[in-house]
């Protein structure tokens, strides 16, 4: 047990009561160093309930047996084992609804987080997400101070922080493999859909890297997660204004670039980043560039997992798709036509419907594209079938 472990465990022993509910901050600033001490304190206290957000990587020191109940309101790769083993319940919620859940039925008594010290106080660093709203609504924050984390959150200093220790490491980093040839073909077809001056939303991953690389016009970035491609845009002179996202998700290169951008705030709360009214009515059109695990013949999208897996998460997928479809922008679903030799267009989804068909405007694959706007149900089915047959510009 290191010094942070022992100090944090003693302090948490005074903060965590039997039967209390504790939330652990999410994204790449998740306080992994606190999961072990929290588990030990919870086991002794008894009846402690745990709320998890987005977990980007495994938390090996988190003991699920120490808690009476575990719920995740987002999910993520690090939560996959907990969900698939049924140690945790995944609460189905679009990201814009998470603050309401945490202010109501899942309101925690304590929030554990990572913070960054500024001359005027403490702020979150690589994320703001749902945590900022809880802190400002009076939920106490117990945190570790990250000495080597980026300070990218705007807003006022947090009102009530109990410091449990300090850490030197950077936030959890994510390395993205290079795009495939299929990714590049998809990106070449998506790029013409993005007009100069538009706002784009994209997630992390190979395809997002290819999509951004294919752009040759200046764009704003208004997204849920901010990944490394935003740095590529900045270096190419194509990034307009200050990007906005609820969390950083990438490599040290991204964190170095975002560090110190607190005046306007690169990372902001969900209440701002996923506000459908703001997203759909801003002066420049929103082009939502989302991916999918699979899409059915009706145009319904699944990003959460197939055959019982918990590979994905709802996140902001339905929020940005709905906002783009209801405004002057465009809701684009981009995916490879096959995955491991099987078509990604299916008769029946192998998992839940994450985003409904009426919030999908254009579907793009490595074989072509289908513009579904203005089509009836049967026409949409024919357009999607033609697309998977390889017709470029599949509307017939």
Automatic annotation (TrEMBL):
SUPFAM superfamilies membership: NagB/RpiA/CoA transferase-like
Domain (Acetyl-CoA hydrolase/transferase C-terminal) ranges: 250-385
Entry keyword set: Hydrolase
Record-level GO BP terms: acetate metabolic process
Entry coiled-coil feature ranges: none
Region annotation Disordered: where it falls in the sequence: 155-180
GO molecular function: acetate CoA-transferase activity; hydrolase activity
InterPro entries tied to this protein: AcetylCoA_hyd_C (IPR026888), AcetylCoA_hyd_C_sf (IPR038460), ActCoA_hydro (IPR046433), NagB/RpiA_transferase-like (IPR037171)
PANTHER family tied to this protein: ACETYL-COA HYDROLASE, ACETYL-COA HYDROLASE-RELATED
Protein name as it appears in the record: Acyl-CoA hydrolase
Biological source species: Pseudonocardia ammonioxydans
Highest classification ranks of the organism: Bacteria, Bacillati, Actinomycetota, Actinomycetes, Pseudonocardiales
């Amino acid at each position: 047990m290191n010094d942070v472990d022992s100090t944090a465990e003693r302090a948490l022993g005074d903060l965590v009561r039997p039967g209390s509910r504790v939330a652990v901050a999410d994204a790449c600033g998740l306080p992994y160093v606190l999961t072990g001490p929290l588990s030990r304190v919870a086991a002794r206290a008894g009846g402690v309930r745990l709320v998890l957000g987005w977990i980007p990587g495994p938390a090996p020191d988190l003991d699920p047996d120490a808690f009476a109940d575990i719920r995740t309101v987002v999910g993520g790769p690090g939560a996959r084992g907990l969900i698939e083993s049924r140690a945790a319940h995944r609460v189905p919620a679009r990201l814009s609804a998470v603050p309401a859940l945490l202010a109501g039925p899942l309101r925690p008594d304590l929030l554990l987080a990572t913070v960054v010290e500024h001359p005027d106080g403490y702020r979150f660093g690589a994320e703001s997400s749902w945590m900022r709203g809880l802190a400002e609504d009076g939920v106490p924050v117990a945190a570790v101070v990250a000495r080597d984390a980026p300070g990218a959150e705007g807003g006022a200093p947090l009102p009530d922080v109990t410091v449990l220790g300090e850490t030197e490491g950077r936030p959890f980093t994510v390395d993205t493999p290079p795009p495939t040839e299929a990714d590049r073909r998809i990106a070449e077809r998506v790029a013409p859909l993005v007009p100069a001056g538009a706002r784009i939303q994209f997630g992390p991953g190979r395809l997002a890297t290819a999509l951004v690389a294919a752009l040759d016009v200046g764009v704003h970035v208004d997204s849920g997660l901010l990944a490394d491609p935003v740095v590529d845009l900045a270096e190419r002179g194509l990034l307009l204004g200050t990007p906005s996202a609820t969390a950083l998700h990438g490599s040290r290169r991204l964190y170095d670039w975002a560090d110190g951008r607190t005046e306007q705030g690169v990372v902001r709360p969900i209440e701002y980043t996923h506000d459908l009214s703001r997203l759909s009515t801003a002066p420049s059109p929103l082009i939502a560039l989302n991916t999918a695990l699979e899409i059915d013949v009706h145009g319904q999208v699944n990003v959460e997992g197939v055959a019982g897996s918990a590979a994905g998460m709802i996140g902001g997928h339905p929020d940005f798709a709905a906002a783009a479809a209801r405004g002057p922008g465009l809701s684009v679903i981009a995916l490879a036509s096959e995955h491991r030799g099987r078509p990604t267009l299916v008769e029946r989804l192998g998992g839940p419907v994450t985003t409904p068909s009426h919030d999908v405007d254009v579907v793009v694959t490595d074989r072509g594209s289908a513009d579904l706007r203005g089509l009836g149900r049967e026409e949409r089915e024919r357009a999607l079938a033609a697309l998977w047959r390889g017709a470029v510009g599949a509307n017939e």
